[in-house]
Design goal:
This protein is mainly α. It is built from 3 helices and no strands.
């Protein structure tokens, strides 16, 4: 349980601290033009996207390995859909990165 809290803290808090520092410096430099909020939203968005996809990938891999452990003959039929689903999950993170970098650049 403590490890889950530590992983959640490192996933959400550490990127936000770096983004908040950049947002503060940018906001001070631009005299409250709203640019800092874009950095904050970008950091929060990519942090949430990475956390959710990481959790989803671990659940998918766990389910696939559990299925293979119960029936070793099903390893080949499970392997391709597992890789396809993991690739699609990674694509979601890349889309989130593009969206958040667009938010940060405005």
């Amino acid at each position: 349980m403590k490890r889950n809290k530590l992983v959640a803290l490192s996933t959400f808090a550490l990127p936000l601290l770096a983004v908040a520092e950049e947002a503060t410096a940018t906001t001070v430099a631009t005299a409250n033009s709203g640019v800092g909020l874009g950095y904050l939203a970008a950091g929060l968005g990519i942090g949430i996207a990475c956390a959710v996809v990481g959790y989803s990938q671990s659940r998918a891999a766990s389910a696939a390995l559990d299925g293979i452990a119960r029936n070793p003959a099903s390893a080949k039929p499970i392997f391709v859909p597992l890789l396809l689903s993991l690739a699609l999950m990674e694509a979601l993170v890349l889309f989130a990165f593009l969206i958040t970098s667009t938010l940060a650049s405005k």
